[in-house]
Amino acid sequence: xxxxxxxxQVDAELQQMVELRHPEPHRVLGIxxxxxxxxxxxxxxxxxxxxxxxxxxxxxxMTQRVGGVFEARINGKGDAFNYLLEVEYPGNKxxxxxxxxxxxxxxxxxxxxxxxxxxxEQLWKRMGAHPIHHNGISGVAFAVWAPTAASVSVVGDFNSxxxxxxxMRRMGSSGIWELFIPEVGEGTRYKFEIRPGGGGRLLKAxxxxxxxxxxxxxxxVVHDLxxxxxxDERWMTERAARDVxxxxxxxxxxxxxxxxxxxxxxxRSLSYREMATALADYVKKMGFxxxxxxxxxxxxxxxxxxxxxxxxxxxxxxxxxxxxFRYLVNYLHEQGIGVLLDWVPGHFPRDAHALGxxxxxxxxxxxxxRQGTQPDWGTYVFNFGRNEVRNFLIANALFWLEExxxxxxxxxxxxxxxxxxYSRKHGEWIPNRWGGRENEEAISFxxxxxxxxxxxxxxxxxxxxxxxxWPKVSQPTQEGGLGFHFKxxxxxxxxxxxxxxxxxxxxQHHHNQLTFGLLYAFSEHFMLPLSHDEVVHGKGSxxxxxxxxxxxKRANLxxxxxxxxxxxxxxxxxxxxxxxxxxxxxxxxSLDWHLLGEQGHAGIQxxxxxxxxxxxxxxxxxxxxxxxxxxxxxxxxxAAANVFAFVRRSRQPGGHxxxxxxxxxxxxxxxxxxxxxxxxxxxxxxxxxxxxxxxGIGNMGRIHTDAFGWDGQEASVQLTLPPLSVLWFTPx
Length: 732
Description:
By secondary structure, the chain is of the alpha+beta class. The protein contains 15 helices and 38 strands.
C-alpha cells in the first residue's frame, strides 16, 4: 500500500472523481493506508448508504464525504484485506458487490512497452475485454487505448450504462486505460465512455471486441476465446508443409449473406453453422480448393458488403456467435477446403461508435484530411506511421490466422494504400519527404505485415488486390518486394472480359487483349480474379457480358472459364459465375439456384466441376504458374480465325497440356495445330460437349498426331474446332 495522501490532496482528487476527470481513480478509491489503520472509499453517486463487509467479519457503515464518495475508516488494520461493498439504493434496493478499485492492474510493464513500440504481436490477448480470474476472483479485465482522453469509463448492462460507476485508470504514459471489474461475465454488453480533454462525451465500441451485438445495435459483447475445441489438426499440419507457389488454387468467392437464403423463413441468410454443411458440400462437389469469404469483420452497414469495418476483431453477429464462425472454418478444414478472408486495412467508416475520432482526436486516422480521408468511399484512412495503429492492424491479421485458423488474407484496395494521391486531385494530397507520391509508411507497414505472417504461419498466404504496375508486389521483402504471396491480376481480368464481351466479328481486332498478358504473366505470382467487382454497379453478370443469343452466351462463358483455368495463374471465381447466373449480383437476395433445373445452366456448372477436377489432377496446369517454362505459345497470331493455341508445361519432365481456343462462332474442320510430341493425346476437355450444353462437335475424345512439324513443334494434327470453344489435350 502506498504512503497516504494528506486530507487536502484527497479532497482535491475526490473532486476530480466527482467531475469525472480523474485519470487514476485507484489513487483515491478502494483501500488505502490511513495512519494506524486503513480507509476504504467508494464512488456510488445515487446510493443511499454503503457498508463495508470485510473478509474478517463485521459490517462497517460508510459515510458520504463528497458528491457520492463514501468512505469508512478501519482502525488498527494497516494491511490490505478483501472486502465486499453492500450498497443500498432508493426503494430499499440493496446490492452486494466486490470493489473494482481493490484490485491491482491486469496489464504488466512489458505489455505497455511492446504496445508503445508497436511490437506486441498478440495485442488482442491484453487489450479489449477478457474474462479472467484475478486474485482468485472471476471478472473481466478491460483495456482501451485513448491517449488524449481526460477520463474513460466502462459502461454496460452491469452498471446501467452509467459512466460514473466504473472509471478506468490510465497506465502511465502509454495512453492505455485499464480496469478489472469483478463478477462481470461472458455475454455482457459494454462500451467505453470517453471524455475528451476538451469536454463532451463519446460512447465507443471496443476496438478489440471479440463479439458484438447484431447490427444495427452497436454494443460490444464480452466473449471468451478459449471455449472452442478445434478438430482440424490434420489440415493445419498439412497446410504448414504445403508448397504455396506450386500448388493448385481454385478459389470460390462467397458473400455469406446472399449465397443461399432460406426463403421459407422470411428469406433470411444462412447462419454460420447452416453455411458450414451447405457450403462444404457444394464446394467439394464443385472441386474448388478454397473459399474466399468477403469481409466477415463486423460492419455497421450491410450494403458495404463488409468493406467498411467497424470492429476488426469480431466476426459479424448477423450469422451467429463467434464460435459458430469457428465451426464454419473448422468444418471446411475437415472437408479439405481452405478458407481465405477479405481483410480491409486501407480505410474505415465514420460511424460514431467506431474508430473515427476515437478519443476526440484523430487517433487511428491522420488528422490532415489530405492524408486521413478516402474521397472514393467517404471513409477515414489509417495512420500507418503511428506505432500503435500499425500494431493494431498487424495484430489483427495475426489474430484471424491464430484464433480462427484462417488460411490467408486477401488485402483489399492495396493501391489506395501505396499512393498518397490515390483518387485525389492536385493540391488534395501531401507528397512524401522526397516529393513523391509513394506512401512510405504504408509500404513499411505492408512489408512488416507480410513478414510477420510468413514467419509465424507457414502455409498461410497474403494476397494483394493491387491494380497498378507497382513492382514486386509478390516478391519477398528481402528482394525489395512487398512480401505478398499472390497478386490479383487486374490487367488480365480487364483485358480478358473486354475481349470476350466483343461480338466475334470484331474479336480479330482485339486479339492482343488475350495475348498481351503473357508479356508480364511471370513478373508476379498472379491470381486470376473474376470477382464480385465485375458483376455489380451496372456491369451485369459474367453471362450477361457475353455477346450473342442465349446459346452463344453460354458457349462464350464456358470458353471464358476454360481459358481462365488453362491460363497461368491461380484461379478465383465469384459465386454464381459457375452456373451462369444471368442477373447482376444483388447482395440482398439469393443466387438463382432454381436455374440449375435448366440444362444450359446445369451444363456450365458441370463443366466448372470438371475444370477443377482436371486442373488439380494435371500439374502442368498449376505447378509452374509463375515460371516461363510453364507456358509456350503455339498460335498467338491467328487473329483472322479467332484461334489461340498454347502449351502448359509441368515442372515434372514430360507433363504438358495443349489448349486450343476457337473463339469464333464458326466450326473449323481440319485445322492444323502443332503438338510437342508425336503420339496419342486424350481430349481432356471440350467446352462444346453436349453434357455442358454444347453442340457436341469434337474429336471423339482422342487424337493421334502426325510426324509433321508445325508451330515450332515436332508433331501436329488436324483438328475439329467447335464454335466458341476451348479444347484441352494431354498425352495418353
